[in-house]
Amino acid sequence: MKLAVSNIAWSPEHRAAAYDMLQAHGVRGLEIAPGLFFDRSADPFAPTGEELAQAMREARRAGLELVSMQALLFGAAGAALFGSPREREAFRSAMLRAIGLAGRLSIPNLVFGSPRQRVVPEGMTEAEAQELALRSFAELGDAARRAGTKLGLEANPAAYGANFLTTLEEADAFMARLDHPAVTLTLDLGAMHMNGSFPRIADCVARLASPISHVHVSEPHLAPAPADAGQAATALTALSRRGYSGWVSIEMKQPPEPVVTTLEAALGRLQQAVGLASKEASLT
């Protein structure tokens, strides 16, 4: 498994220590939220050449490559997939801006979560929402393909304030209708825990019709992840049996101090899970 960590796990002042710790543990992948990666930029989605070069130097010095981007609508006031024409245009512009930055940085995957920006309003039918979303993501998929990246849709549980594509099955069905080569699935383990579907993960992963471009090892409400190495190993085994060979990224919010100690413990559990999954594979 190719292991990565999202930079939402630390604040910019802890960046150097976090990078050193990732390097010490052999982690080579870095998932970024632009607002944290380019925190010294007036516009993190349009960093200057020097700002970009400095951020990349720091990551490369630790042997890290950028493998995914999240928080795509950071700072996009009034953006809504199902909003008014003005809100939909703000959504479109912000998403195209994020896709453009991913192309500039050669990031192969973007995670579309944004639960509150994809709420279907009262009065809009499910059929209307589906058609609007299909048109929107067909255009965004075309832009992602031109940029050399993929847009990974993530199921967001209702507990996060979403009411559209809240389960993995719903996201998979939407993807089947869209049928776009540059729009894929991001598999989020925390969402499966919250939806009560994690005990069926082996069957769920095996039945997916859509390709998976990225995996978030997460817990409900972005608590330190993984919480349990055995459960994470079950997920990794299911992914391995499916033939998934992409990045598996810890996604957790910044914990209380000490940040690096908490992150290091989480990484230890994930690496233990990798070992357990490898042992399981050798026995089958």
Quote the CATH topology. TIM Barrel
Query: What fraction, in percent, of the residue positions are helical?
Result: 40-55%
Please tell me the CATH architecture by its name: Alpha-Beta Barrel
Q: Radius of gyration from the CA trace?
A: 18 Å
| Main beta-sheet strand count, sense and barrel state | 8 strands, parallel
Order of helices and strands: EHEHHEHEHEHEHHEHEH
**Could you name the CATH class?**
Alpha Beta
Tell the overall outline.
globular
* Number of contiguous helices: 10
Give the beta-strand count: 8
Quaternary arrangement of the chains shown? Answer: single chain
Distance between the termini: 18 Å
Which characteristics define this entry?
284 residues; alpha/beta; TIM Barrel; 8-stranded parallel sheet; 10 helices; 8 strands; globular; Xyl_isomerase-like_sf; isomerase; Sugar phosphate isomerase/epimerase; Xyl_isomerase-like_TIM-brl; IolE/XylAMocC-like
Structure commentary:
With 284 residues, the chain is α/β, with parallel strands linked by helices. The chain has one domain (2-282): TIM Barrel (Alpha-Beta Barrel), CATH 3.20.20. Helices cover 47% and strands 14% of the residues. The protein has helices at 15-24, 34-37, 49-61, 85-105, 126-147, 168-178, 189-195, 201-207, 229-242, 259-283; strands at residues 2-6, 29-32, 65-69, 109-112, 150-154, 183-188, 212-217, 247-250. Strands 3-2-1-8-7-6-5-4 form an 8-stranded parallel sheet. Strand 5 (150-154), helix 6 and strand 6 (183-188) form a beta-alpha-beta unit. The longest helix is centred in the last third of the chain and has 25 residues, at 259-283. The radius of gyration is 18 Å and the shape is globular. It starts with a strand and ends with a helix.
